[in-house]
Write a structure and sequence with these properties.
Number of domains of chain A: 1
Strand content of chain B: under 5%
CATH superfamily of chain A: Phenylacetic acid degradation B
Number of domains of chain B: 1
Structural class of chain A: alpha+beta
Shape of chain B: globular
Strand content of chain A: 25-35%
CATH architecture of chain B: Up-down Bundle
Helix content of chain A: 10-25%
Radius of gyration of chain A: 13 Å
Number of strands of chain B: 0
Shape of chain A: flat
Largest sheet of chain B: none
Number of helices of chain A: 1
Oligomer: heterodimer
Strand order of the largest sheet of chain A: 2-1-3
CATH class of chain A: Alpha Beta
Distance between the termini of chain A: 20 Å
Radius of gyration of chain B: 18 Å
Order of helices and strands of chain A: EEHE
Helix content of chain B: 55-70%
CATH superfamily of chain B: Ferritin, core subunit, four-helix bundle
Distance between the termini of chain B: 46 Å
CATH class of chain B: Mainly Alpha
Number of strands of chain A: 3
Largest interface: A-B, 16 and 19 residues
CATH architecture of chain A: Roll
Largest sheet of chain A: 3 strands, antiparallel
């Protein structure tokens, strides 16, 4: 079963910036949302989102965790 | 369902009171056994994330069971005795939970079908006249939304997977569906008394709502819930379940035998 990495972002209060709180490996977005909620549920989140790591395009460097996405734009 | 909310068993006639007590116990035991079946997969799930999800659902089910057992206090039952002192033969869980899931496909069927059936019946309970159910059950159902999402996503993944995955999912689904339809719609005296008193949904309504909830998943295997007949053979109205009893290991874990012996005289 092929899985991909989904990064997890969340905020505790309305108006706070979303911050990166971790990641999950999941075969699709539907499972990524459930895994994220189950894995990072120690705190009471106002909002949580998941983003496929392959969709994150680096802007100012090419040696970070998203470097593979730098060429050719979004995966 | 409508009518004045009730919170005192003494306000019910004897038939409705006893039926409600049996009904609550069957929901509590179902939650407790389902939690045990989820817990079996904390370390054997296909990924760490799936194991964490199984762990989270296990915690939810045991929390829900605890709240439901506590409702029995109003019926003169000691929840501690109910949780820790009953033999396996007294357990009132749906009979499909009597043994562990043999593989991940069967656990996914538990998520979709058994958890789905429990939620369907609880929705009817929350919409009825028993006041404690109207206040406690909605939060349980909110937590169940993630169980449903997880089960639905995994069911679709296996249904679209290898021939072996499809076959295992089909086998477990077809094995448990007739018994679960009987559990949703027992067509016994208790069921009619509870529906008549506005305390639970009609069995036929349970089946309709269950079909709406799980039908799209089962359709992936071309299984039509509407064409499956409930299996009520040897229905045990006293325990509100089919024949049999849960395995000893599960009951010992449900009761906490091994560790309670350390501190309970």
């Amino acid at each position: 079963m092929r899985e991909e990495v989904f990064d997890v972002f969340a905020r505790k209060e309305r108006g706070e910036p979303l911050r990166h709180i971790g990641y999950v490996d999941a075969p699709d977005a539907a499972l990524a949302r459930v895994y994220a909620w189950n894995t990072y549920d120690e705190e009471r989140w106002f909002e949580m989102c998941v983003v496929p790591r392959a969709a994150i395009i680096p802007v100012n460097r090419t040696d970070g965790p998203f470097a593979a996405n730098a060429k050719g734009g979004a995966a | 369902m409508s009518g004045e909310l009730l919170n005192d068993p003494a306000a019910l006639d004897a038939g409705a009171r006893d039926a409600l007590e049996r009904f609550i116990l069957s929901l509590a035991d179902g939650k407790r056994l389902l939690g045990i079946r989820y817990s079996d997969w904390l370390l054997g799930a296909p990924s760490i994330e799936a194991g964490i999800a199984a762990s989270s659902m296990c915690q939810d089910e045991w929390g829900h069971a605890r709240l439901l057992y506590a409702m029995l206090k109003d019926f003169g039952r000691d929840p501690v005795a109910v949780e820790h002192d009953r033999p396996a033969e007294a357990y009132a869980n749906p009979c499909v939970l009597d043994r562990p899931a043999e593989d991940w496909a069967e656990l996914v069927s538990f998520m979709v079908l058994v958890d789905g059936a429990l939620s369907t019946v609880l929705e009817g309970f929350a919409a009825g006249r028993w006041e404690l159910a109207t206040s406690r059950v909605p939060k349980m159902l909110a937590e169940e939304a993630f169980h449903r999402d997880l089960g639905t996503a995994w069911y679709a993944r296996l249904a679209g997977g290898s021939a072996e995955a499809q076959e295992r999912l089909r086998t477990s689904t077809e094995r448990m569906l007739p018994r679960l339809l009987a559990w949703l719609d027992p067509d016994d005296e208790d069921a009619h008394v509870l529906a008549g008193a506005g305390l639970a949904a009609e069995g036929a309504r349970n089946r309709e709502r269950f079909a709406e909830a799980v039908g799209p998943s089962l359709a992936l295997l071309e299984i039509d819930v509407a064409t499956v007949e409930p299996d009520r053979a040897d229905w045990d109205a006293t325990r509100r379940r089919g024949p049999g009893r849960p395995d000893d290991d599960a009951v010992e874990r449900a009761r906490g035998d091994r560790n309670r012996a350390l501190f309970v005289e």
